Structure formats: C-alpha cells, structure tokens
C-alpha cells in the first residue's frame, strides 16, 4: 500500500450532513447493508440511481413499474456485503415476470447464504466505466482514501491511498494521477465528477472516523457526464 500524505486538509469543518450520517450509524457495529451505506454516500453528495426497497416479489414488481426501464434486483442484508458472490444480484431486467422471478431468486440466495431478514433493492440500471472509490480508517494512522479499478478488478494490484480529507484541488490531482490504471480517459470520462466523489468519501471518512472502519462506492460508474454509485459498502466501528 502506498500512502500519499501531502495534500490533506488540516482544519476542515464538519459536513452539513454529518449529524444525519451519524444517525445512520447509530446502534450499528459491523457491516452495513447497501441501503445504509448508500445513504451515507448520498449525504456526502455522491449520486445513487433511482431505487426502491421491497420485501416481497410483488412489492419488487411495483417498484420496477415506478422506476421504468431496465432494473437491477439485489438482495439487501448486512450479512451480504458481497452479494454478487452468493448469487443475490440480477441485472438488466424488464417486465413483471422477470422482476418477480429475480426477487424470489435473490431472496432465496440471501437466506441460503445466512441472511436472516433480507430485503430486495430494485434499482435503475446505469452504464459507465467501473471504478472503486473507498476509504479505510486506521486507528493509528487515521483515514485514507483510494481510487482503483472497480467491480471484479477491485482486489487486483496495489492500492494507492491519500490521507483524508482532501481539498478539491488535491482530489482532482489524485484522480488524474490514478486515471490510467483505472481506465479513465479525460476525453471520455468526467474526471471532475470522480474527483468530487473522492473528496466526498474522504470527507465522510474524516468526519465519521470515530464510527467508520471503511466506506466504499464500488462500483462507481463513470460516464462523459457525471458518476453514479450503483453499490455501496461500509463497516461501522462500535461506539466507545
């Protein structure tokens, strides 16, 4: 792991939504489900796709009708931080029958993997190049943020981290320094949107460092205009 310490901002005021983010973490220790983790990302300014939460296949069908267009259907449970690995994700679905069948399948897969009370997240499909934007909070060294290839490539190769929080200028410089290895081309990808996401995660990690172990948008899908976090992971530290 390579840690870049220069560029961190010393005295950053708390984010206006810090109190709301702490409320998301209240009473939680260990992994968060995607909805909670995604809410923290949203509070710090990272866009999420249109989505609805459901408990049954019938509710999932109604949710898909409201969203319109192709949807992803995913099981949601704190016990499933990597739900695709246990078969609890279905993508590119259209029509009531396909959505209902997918909801039944992902709920079954989640329960088989040990989730006690899984729910279904119905989410509008999005496109773009996948990157991971994440932060870890080390009890000795403090929070640090990274950007690297996302999705199935997230665990490959070395990661470069930058100490949190990052200024807007430092976030842009950090993203540009990592763009090639992430498959990001300034001519085809909105690097400023990625930099905003990196800064947002770094700010959240700094603000919530007493309660967070880690926070990720993975993947963050990056297009010509904007970036959207289609999945979110986080782990909370027990309050002291």
- CATH names the topology of the largest domain as D-amino Acid Aminotransferase, Chain A, domain 1
CATH architecture label of the largest domain: 2-Layer Sandwich
Q: How many domain units?
A: 2
CATH C-level class of the largest domain is Alpha Beta
Biggest sheet architecture: 8 strands, mixed
What does this structure look like?
By secondary structure, this protein is of the alpha+beta class. The protein has 2 domains: 156 residues, D-amino Acid Aminotransferase, Chain A, domain 1; 74 residues, Dna Ligase, domain 1, CATH 3.30.1490. The chain is 31% helix and 28% strand. The chain contains 6 helices and 12 strands. The strands form 2 sheets. Strands 1, 2, 7, 8, 9, 10, 11 and 12 form an 8-stranded mixed beta sheet that branches. A 4-stranded antiparallel beta sheet has the order 3-6-4-5, covered by helices on one side. A hairpin with a 4-residue loop joins β10 and β11. α5 packs across α6. The chain is globular and about 50 Å long. The model has no long low-confidence stretch (mean pLDDT 93).
Features:
2 domains; alpha+beta; 12 strands; Dna Ligase, domain 1; 240 residues; 6 helices; D-amino Acid Aminotransferase, Chain A, domain 1
Quick structural summary:
This protein has two domains: 2-47 and 127-236, D-amino Acid Aminotransferase, Chain A, domain 1 (2-Layer Sandwich); 51-124, Dna Ligase, domain 1 (2-Layer Sandwich), CATH 3.30.1490.
Layout: helices, strands, pairs:
Elements (H helix, E strand, L loop, with lengths): L1 E3 L13 H8 L4 E2 L2 H10 L7 E4 L2 H11 L3 E6 L12 E5 L2 H17 L6 E6 L4 E10 L3 E8 L10 E4 L4 H11 L12 H17 L4 E11 L4 E3 L2 E5 L4
